[in-house]
């Protein structure tokens, strides 16, 4: 997990995500939960490895606070270097608005030396109207980045990156994706150039699969508004309990919005 910013909801989200993950982990599973964060104090008492993120790093990684989505790429690279990974190790990244109602452990089997993992293939760039900004700015264009060339193709797709699974042999792809991303930042006016750059670079050398069916999420604004309130109450009430009890209680939390909440949110938006 990579957690930064002032909003408490991100930190509660990360904690809830790994608590629901830990429910499915046995003592035999050699899994280490790692948090890169600018607020290490938020995770005191939890069975996680915390790597501090400095304000200087956050500023540099976000291109001087102009594109904070780049922090995911740079943060992943930093974590991989910091952990001194072995060849067979696997990195499974999650956004903080994820949680698990079924075992996520099969996701590790989907990550292989020749195969990376993303959350979802959202569709071909040329086939989906909402990705037209890429066609408009990249069609018939060769983008040079550090001696390499990139061209948008009919096979180019948008992959949702709330979950990314890679192995140490793919570490260099993060660097090439970053170089491409920086070029696209000045060409394509879209906040999705970070996941797009990484998926396009990975697909040059590796296969890619989806992991959607193993994870739940609350990423839309209304779902998040509802979930943040529930998680805030959960941790105010339970954070002092032993972690084993928090794991147990987290499984009982319902983040799906009841019908009356959905209707209320829609009415508020209309009014």
TrEMBL record:
Protein's recorded name: Nucleotide-diphospho-sugar transferase domain-containing protein
């Amino acid at each position: 997990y990579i957690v930064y910013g002032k909003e408490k909801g991100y930190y509660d989200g990360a904690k809830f995500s790994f608590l629901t993950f830990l429910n499915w982990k046995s003592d035999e599973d050699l899994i280490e939960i790692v948090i890169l964060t600018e607020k290490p104090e938020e995770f005191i008492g939890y069975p996680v490895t915390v790597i501090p993120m400095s304000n200087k790093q956050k500023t540099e990684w976000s291109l001087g606070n102009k594109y904070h989505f780049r922090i995911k790429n740079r943060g992943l690279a930093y974590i991989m270097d910091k952990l001194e990974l072995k060849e067979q190790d696997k990195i499974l990244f999650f956004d903080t608005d994820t949680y698990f109602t079924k075992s996520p452990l099969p996701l590790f089997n989907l990550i292989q030396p020749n195969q990376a993992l993303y959350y979802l293939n959202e569709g071909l760039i040329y086939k989906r109207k909402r990705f037209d900004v890429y066609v408009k700015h990249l069609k018939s264009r060769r983008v040079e980045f550090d001696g390499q060339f990139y061209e948008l193709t009919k096979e180019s797709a948008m992959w949702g990156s709330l979950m990314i699974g890679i192995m140490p042999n793919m570490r260099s792809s993060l660097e090439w994706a970053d170089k491409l991303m920086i070029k696209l930042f000045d060409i394509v006016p879209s906040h999705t150039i970070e996941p797009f750059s990484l998926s396009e670079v990975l697909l040059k050398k590796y296969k890619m699969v989806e992991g959607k069916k193993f994870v739940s999420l609350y990423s839309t604004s209304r779902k998040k508004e509802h979930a943040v309130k529930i998680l805030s109450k959960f941790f105010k009430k339970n954070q002092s309990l032993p972690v084993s009890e928090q794991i147990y209680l987290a499984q009982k939390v319902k983040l799906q919005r009841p019908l009356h909440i959905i209707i209320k949110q829609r009415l508020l938006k209309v009014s």
